[in-house]
Design brief:
Blueprint lengths: L6 H9 L33 H15 L4 H8 L3 H8 L7 H10 L4 H17 L10
Helix pairs in contact: 2-6, 3-5
Length: 134
């Protein structure tokens, strides 16, 4: 068999474009194979961000010995709405979270870091209270 490609065959190979509709067969090992379903190594607890955000806001407020009424007045949000946010019943906008954080004298980044740690704890079961960042 001649290992040199003739010019007619070579020009066909070089000019035939590969397009999105080109069919490239999958390797036989992947054809008709069932899609594997990942199984978590630990049970995954349902995570609802609004609840975790509310818990962290309430924790910061109560650590400062401040009332809902005082924080809602400074944040310029209704007392009822702030209460619903703390209980995880309402999704707070980023602007509202920033206003509440200002009224609590904490940076928004601190609140979000606290929320991130709690989410990680829920996801992995890892106790971050004993871990250090350094």
């Amino acid at each position: 068999m001649n290992s040199v490609m003739n010019t007619e065959t070579a020009s066909k190979v070089l000019t035939s474009p590969i397009t999105l509709t080109s069919k490239i067969p999958a390797p036989a090992i992947y054809r008709n194979a069932p899609t594997p379903i990942p199984t978590p190594s630990v049970p995954i607890k349902s995570i609802v961000l609004r609840k975790i955000i509310g818990e962290q806001l309430r924790r910061h407020r109560t650590e400062q010995h401040r009332t809902l009424r005082e924080v809602s007045r400074v944040a310029q949000v209704s007392l009822g709405y702030l209460s619903e946010v703390e209980r995880g019943q309402k999704e707070a906008s980023s602007e509202l979270l920033a206003s509440i954080c200002r009224s609590l004298n904490i940076p928004l980044s601190v609140l979000l870091a606290d929320v991130a740690v709690e989410v990680a704890r829920c996801e992995s079961g890892f106790d971050f209270s004993t871990a250090s960042l350094s």
